[in-house]
Amino acid sequence: MTLGTIAVTDDAWYATLLARPPLEEVNFGKPSTTRATRPPEFSPFLFKLRAPHNSICGFGYFARYSRLPDWLAWDTFGLGNGCASLEEMRERITGIRDRIGFQGKNVADIGCVLVVQPTFFPVGHWVATPSDWPPRTQVDKRYNLAKGEGARVWNDCLAAASGVPRNEPGAPTAIREGLRYGKPQLVAPRLGQGSFRLAVADAYLRACAVTGEQSLPALEAAHIRSFKSDGPHEVPNGVLLRADLHRLLDKGYVTVTRDHRFEVSQRLKVDYENGRTYYPLHGRALELPLRAADKPSGAFIEWHNQHVYLG
After folding, report:
1. pTM of the full predicted structure?
2. How far is CA 79 from each of CA 4, 28, 89, 167, rounded to the nearest angstrom?
3. pLDDT of residue 185
4. Are 239 and 246 in contact (CB under 8 A)?
5. Distance from the CA of 16 to the CA of which of 158, 208, 246, 274 falls in 20 to 30 A?
């Protein structure tokens, strides 16, 4: 059974993203964190406009859900939040909260539903809402996309997407780098840069794998094999590090060993006659993700050791 999620969206969010060139990922932000949205990974996620439109205006594929401070959502996704600025995003969230009578305690946190490979339909190409959609429903609703109204809606969405030229605003995300990927084509859903960042942060429980630092502004998701060197946006290719350690990893002055220990190169002392802050970290075991599938991949570690590390 192919499950899909239909979620009610804000008209301004849709209109803003429709007018933009294609994006790799967007944040379907929610003003409240009381109800987490966690459908199957990379399952279809459909955007429904409220009354009076009551139509499906686009879709993407669910990547993950995360609870974030609004500033971090903006820092991670920028215009992919469907707003022109952090201030505009905050004003929109406040307006929605006022409308729904929001009474949450932590007003800085929002629910982030991260959607990859988004497509937005121009006005006149919207898809009719399922005939059995409850008129007053404002919460997400799951549908079987293989039969009944679910199948009708999903097929209509695919047909609508196929009619949007790929170089036009609102178009489905396509791979366009011919030298790297070959002939342009739609791709199977995968994490983007922003969703990779949050997936790594959540896997490491939002703490630096080396120092245990938990201050979010100081933490970054580091690629072990860099994206420009064909490293994928996948959690086993990432490690959550303090920003300074991330930079040292990218420059080759530190690395991760196959037994998941932190290693500091002597080149740091040779090149800069310093490094006393970092050498005490040499040999420290990393605090690893709980899931074995999320732990750093030996293949990516080996690549970094051979091609980047200055040891």
Report:
1. 0.85
2. 25, 12, 10, 18
3. 39
4. no
5. 158
